Amino acid sequence: MEKATGSPSVGGSYPQKNAEILSSQYGINLFLAGLLLTFAWAVHAVGISKSHLLSYLITLMLIQLLWMLWYLGRSCTQRRLIRDKDTHAGARWLKCGITLFAVITLILDSFKIGYYIDFSNCLSATEGIFPVTHAVHTILQVYFLWCHAKDIIQSFKTLERFGVIHSVFTNLLLWTNGVLTESKHQLNEHKERLITLGFGNITIVLDDHAPQCNCTTTTLCSIFSQGIYYLYPFNIEYHILASTMLYVLWKNIGRKVEHHQQHKTPFKFHGITVGMIFGLVVLTSTIAIVVVYLIQIGRSKIKSELALTMFYLHAIFVLALMCTAGIVALLIYRLEDRSLDNSKNPARKLDAELLVGTAAGSWLLSWGSILAIICAQAHPKYTWYNLPYSILVIIEKYIQNLFIIESIHREQEKANDDIKTLRIVTISRGSTLSLTPAYKEIYNGRVAPGSGEVPCLLKGSVLCGRERGGDAKAETSQEKGSVMHSASDVSFYSGNSAANSKRRILKNIAAFLFLCNLSLWIPPAFGCRPEYDNGLEEIVFGFEPWIIVVNLAMPFSIFYRMHSAASLFEVNCKT
């Protein structure tokens, strides 16, 4: 069948579109089945145990391992073939980040293996097989992403679509399992604090999945059981990062790309000292606040209220600084006149959608807190700090999303450093030549030896030259050219000076926001969650409804901060 002019052939595109739809539906059903199994285990459904859930996850990981080995083997046999690559996907800093999270995930798996050995008398075999399978899966997946995250697959496309989408939803299920396990642990700690504070009007039943037998080595068991939950935040981030990278790989299957040179954007510390210093101050103070909060909360009512007040005041100050920085960056963008890059880019599109989608999690919690403050009959003093905190969370993410999305869509400057390419057109002996002398030669009034030409700079990069010789007006022409040259010099340097200042400010803002987002990722990831401990929302909405809202929204809020940090790192490199 012939293909119509300007449109892809029906015979070539229709089967691939069907494959995309079928593979996506396969992945969604795979995920929903695992999600219901996870939910059934969480609510202690009759006939569903943890071994059933782990068996399902082990099966999915083994299938993905087989597919990755097949893909790696096929790639090895075809390594001499030139393959299309998506230069925007799988950035080196992203690979380094996922490698760091993977290493900590391997430590988590080793803790789980040790935990299983100590409680082997009363744990099912799947609880020992799962961490071993997961460790092998992690190692091979990281290697796969390092080598093939940029691939644009053009062969076996239908089969590869199913393999990649299977990998995407396997990682999402592993992420869901990690989130649920970590949330149940946090909820148990919260209930214990409520018991300490004497909340008698709330029915508190600890959801305990602990083994019903004694540990062989008490000290090691305590280390393993406590260490596992401190490592879960890194495991959660690892799986969500892996799923996003694999999703971009899936979207790139069969894609036609324009071949153009991609400018490298290395990260440089030069010029971002101010942003780094302020960001490190925020990071250090946040770590100190989290440590004090975890020590004080639940000790007594007074200490808990002081811990909440301290957290809110610190967060309000940091969020206000972030809002100010974001507004300044957006104002600078309004003063600049640079076009946006609207070319098709799955990685960039996914980044923007994840920023807005995951921000909805914390927006939900913030609006819940605002509504609780408005509707509550009694207001302890510390709860009033929750109002400006919740409002600032909404505004800050709104501004930051605008800044990041516009930054990743702005076209990158073509010139390296701040030197623009100058096109020089000279007329010599009746012929037109196009020359590009070195920057210093042009602005020092020199040209290549023996050219017999004197450059004359005109506005709009149009240059003319006259022959040297016995012309009576040669000296006058040279003087005029020198004057015009000096004026161009001043204009060029003043323009570049202003551009450099704006660029430096933007880089410092991006560096500052990068460290601030890392700082704000730490508290909820490691158990500092005032949404649990505030108490006001639970009184207004009820204990169980509010806890369900928090457990659903908090993982998205945590992921938002890490994803924003990653995006801001890219913005800093690109600016």
Please summarize what this structure is.
This protein has 15 helices and 4 strands. The chain is mostly helical and 575 residues long. The protein has 2 domains: 243 residues, no CATH class; 222 residues, no CATH class.
* Rg measurement, Å: 30 Å
Q: Tell me the overall shape.
A: globular
Strand content: under 5%
Q: Ranges with pLDDT <50 over ≥5 residues?
A: 1-12, 415-470
Helix content: 55-70%
The SSE string, one letter per element, is: HHHHHHHHHHEEHEEHHHH
Mean pLDDT: 77
Strand order of the largest sheet: 1-2
Question: What's the helix count?
Answer: 15
Structural class: mainly alpha
- What is the terminal-to-terminal distance? 47 Å
Give the domain tally: 2
Number of strands: 4
Features:
575 residues; mainly alpha; 2 domains; two-stranded antiparallel sheet; 15 helices; 4 strands; disordered N terminus; cell membrane; hydrogen ion transport
